[in-house]
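User: quick one, sequence for these tokens?
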């Protein structure tokens, strides 16, 4: 081959080739890391389930070995006890009572904040229902924030919009 017809890459072409090879290598390493992570996750779940099944079987076998083989009457259902719910405030009672107590203690909270604070004891929808049942009787909403009627700031007609 004639020396004058050989093509020697320019510095830019070399830089582009190195950048392309680096990008391909980074993508391949990323794909491999994802595969390893997924396989490890899957193996962890499989191991956990296998261990759980093994322990459950052992517990079942140990309990069934202690019992006589004759069938017995099914156990009576537990008595239903309506235990009062405990809240973050340390009070017990209905959702409406807890919502009112919370608003008295922390006026100016948004509905989302009240639901989050009382969410340990009551589902969010229960807290929101209590807010709306108490609205205009014991509490009011001003600029999307809940107050007791006594503690509410003065408001204009457009400021009573609801923002939960």
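Assistant:
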């Amino acid at each position: 081959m004639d020396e004058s017809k050989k093509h020697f890459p320019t510095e830019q072409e070399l830089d582009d080739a190195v950048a392309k090879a680096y990008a391909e290598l980074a993508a391949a390493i990323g794909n491999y890391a994802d595969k390893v992570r997924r396989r490890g996750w899957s193996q962890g779940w499989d191991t956990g389930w296998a261990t759980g099944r093994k322990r459950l079987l052992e517990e079942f076998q140990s309990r069934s070995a202690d019992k006589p083989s004759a069938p017995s009457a099914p156990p009576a259902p537990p008595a239903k006890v309506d235990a009062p719910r405990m809240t973050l405030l340390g009070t017990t009672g209905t959702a409406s009572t807890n919502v009112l107590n919370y608003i008295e203690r922390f006026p100016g909270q948004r509905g989302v904040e009240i639901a989050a604070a009382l969410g340990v004891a009551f589902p969010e929808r229960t807290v929101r229902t209590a807010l709306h049942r108490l609205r205009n009787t014991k509490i009011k909403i001003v600029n999307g924030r809940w107050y007791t009627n006594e503690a509410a700031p003065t408001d204009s007609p457009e400021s009573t919009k609801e923002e939960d």
